[in-house]
Amino acid sequence: MSRLYLIRHGESVWNATRRLRGQADPDLSPRGESQARELATVLPPQLPRDAICSDLQRASRTAALLGLDAQPDRRWREIGVGEWEGQDTDDLRTRDPACWRAWRAGDFTPRYSVQLQ
Predict the structure, then answer these.
(1) CA dihedral 45, 52, 89, 39 (to 10 degrees)
(2) What's the pLDDT score for residue 41?
(3) Each residue's pLDDT tens digit, 2-46
């Protein structure tokens, strides 16, 4: 039987300060590194060592801490959040509650000030 394991990266330094990441590339926080190490102790020993991960450093670092030989692939990146990347979530929620609620409901996308690659 085949199994698919989907593992989210550990806490990033921006998670720790409640900033939206999107496709920005902050690294793991010390807590995020600890989370990955703790997860490694409970993963099945027969877990394949081959893996695919986002090309962002928080994902590749998590995979490395899990002992996985992860091939980076940009198609696994988190969704972008445009001009909101790096913004404090509490500040965004306070500044424009209607847009925040619409974004959380999937009905709004922050605009991009630069062309995506």
Answers:
(1) 10
(2) 93
(3) 778 899 999 999 999 999 999 999 999 999 999 999 999 998 887
One-letter amino acid identity for 63? A
Strand partners, 45: none
> Which one of 33, 38, 78, 85 is the catalytic residue?
78
Q: How far apart, in whole angstroms, are the C-alpha atoms of residue 93 and residue 98? A: 8
Q: Which of 9, 33, 83, 85 is catalytic?
A: 9
pTM attached to this predicted model:
0.83
**Whether 85 is catalytic:** no
